[in-house]
Write a structure and sequence with these properties.
This protein is α/β, with parallel strands linked by helices and 320 residues long. It is globular and about 60 Å long. The chain starts with 13 loop residues before the first strand and ends in a 6-residue tail after the last strand. The protein has eleven helices and 15 strands. It has two domains: 144 residues, Glycogen Phosphorylase B (Rossmann fold, 3-Layer(aba) Sandwich); 151 residues, Rossmann fold, CATH 3.40.50. It has a six-stranded parallel β-sheet with strand order 11-10-9-12-13-14.
C-alpha cells in the first residue's frame, strides 16, 4: 500500500486558478473540499460558465486562452504577481489546465505551498499539464483515479462517487419529447459529428434546444444558441426529457445534480474535436457507474426509454 504524501488543507485562504469549463467546475468542488476561507480568491477565464456561476469568493477574470497555448498565459504573470503582493494567501491551488504551470512557478517564487489536483478526466495517465509540472519540480499532487494513486499521487475523493442511479420503472408513450443538446463551448473545435448523430434519432414533433458553442451548422430544427447563461442552461437541463451532450465534466455533473442520465457523445482527437481523448476516459468511467449512456456506440431512439427509466441521486459531499 502506498503512503500518503499530501494532506487536504483543513482551512486557510487560498488562491484558486483554473481555465473554464470542466476545470472550473472541478475547481469549485476543490474549494469546498479544501474548506477554503471566505477570504479566498479565484482567478479564471472570462466565459459564459464562469461569469454566471454562483460563487462565494472574490473572482477575477482573464482573457480566454485556448488549450495548450502556454505563451499567451505568460501575459498574466504580472497581474498574478500583483495579486500575490497585495493580499496574503496561505497556498495556491489549481485544477488546470496550463494556467496551473504559471501558478506553480509563482508559488515557488513567493515561497507558497502549491497544490495541483489532476482532473477526474485523467483515469489512466497524467495530463500534459501534470507532466510539465513534474518536470519543473512538483513532486506530489492529488489525483482522482485509483489507478494513478501512488506515493507521489495522493488520491482525493471524487465527487462522481457521490452519484448513483435508481430504476424508476417509468413507462412513456410520448412521441414528442423535450430534448436539450449541449456540445460545449471550447473554442476553435467544432462538433458537427454529434449533430449528425442526433439528427438521425430526433422526430419532427420533438422540441429541441441546441447549445452549439463554436460548431457552425445551418437549418437545425428547434432553437439554436451559441452560449447560454448559467440559469438558462440549468433550466433547460431540468425541463428536458432527454439531455444529449459531449463528455465534459461540467455538463455531466449538471445533469447528475438535476437527476438526469445523459446520452453522451465524447469529443475525439482523431476527428479534431479536442486536443486529446480525455472525454473518452470520462465517458468510460461514468459508464462503469451506470451514470451515462453511450449514444456514439448505438445512435438509436430506443435509448430514450433507458434514459427515462433511471434517475440519478446524489449523496452528501458531491458537487453542489
Amino acid at each position: 500500500m502506498y503512503s500518503t504524501k499530501l494532506s487536504i488543507p483543513v482551512s486557510g485562504c487560498g488562491l484558486f486558478l483554473s481555465s473554464s469549463g470542466g476545470h472550473f467546475s472541478e475547481l469549485l468542488y476543490i474549494t469546498k473540499r479544501f474548506n477554503a476561507s471566505k477570504e479566498s480568491q479565484i482567478l479564471t477565464f472570462e466565459t459564459s460558465d464562469t461569469k454566471s456561476a454562483r460563487i462565494e469568493f472574490a473572482i477575477e477574470y482573464l482573457p480566454y486562452v485556448a488549450p495548450r497555448k502556454i505563451f499567451p498565459l505568460l501575459a498574466i504573470i504580472p497581474r498574478l504577481y500583483r495579486i500575490l503582493g497585495y493580499k496574503h494567501f496561505d497556498y495556491i491551488a489549481s485544477t488546470g489546465a496550463a494556467i496551473a504551470i504559471i501558478g506553480y512557478l509563482l508559488a515557488r517564487l513567493r515561497k507558497k505551498q502549491f497544490y495541483y489536483v489532476e482532473s477526474i478526466a485523467r483515469q489512466s495517465s497524467l495530463s500534459l499539464t501534470a507532466k510539465i509540472l513534474k518536470i519543473l519540480g512538483l513532486k506530489y499532487c492529488f489525483v482522482q483515479s485509483e489507478a494513478l494513486a501512488d506515493s507521489k499521487h495522493t488520491l482525493i475523493p471524487s465527487p462522481i462517487a457521490n452519484f448513483r442511479t435508481i430504476k424508476m420503472n417509468y413507462t412513456s408513450e410520448k412521441t414528442s419529447l423535450r430534448i436539450f443538446v449541449a456540445l460545449g463551448t471550447i473554442r476553435d473545435y467544432e462538433f458537427t459529428r454529434a449533430i449528425d448523430l442526433v439528427k438521425k434519432i430526433i422526430n419532427k414533433t420533438d422540441t429541441v434546444n441546441w447549445q452549439l458553442g463554436f460548431t457552425k451548422y445551418q437549418n437545425l430544427p428547434g432553437q439554436s444558441h451559441f452560449e447560454l447563461e448559467r440559469d438558462q442552461f440549468a433550466q433547460l437541463i431540468e425541463l428536458s426529457d432527454i439531455v444529449i451532450c459531449h463528455a465534459g465534466i461540467g455538463i455531466l455533473t449538471d445533469c447528475f445534480k438535476a437527476g438526469k442520465v445523459p446520452l453522451v457523445i465524447p469529443r475525439r482527437r482523431k476527428h479534431h474535436e479536442h486536443v486529446d481523448d480525455h472525454q473518452v476516459e470520462i465517458m468510460n468511467l461514468l459508464l462503469s457507474k451506470n451514470l451515462v449512456i453511450d449514444l456514439e456506440a448505438n445512435p438509436s431512439r430506443d435509448l430514450f426509454n433507458d434514459v427515462l427509466n433511471f434517475k440519478v441521486l446524489a449523496d452528501a459531499g458531491g458537487y453542489n
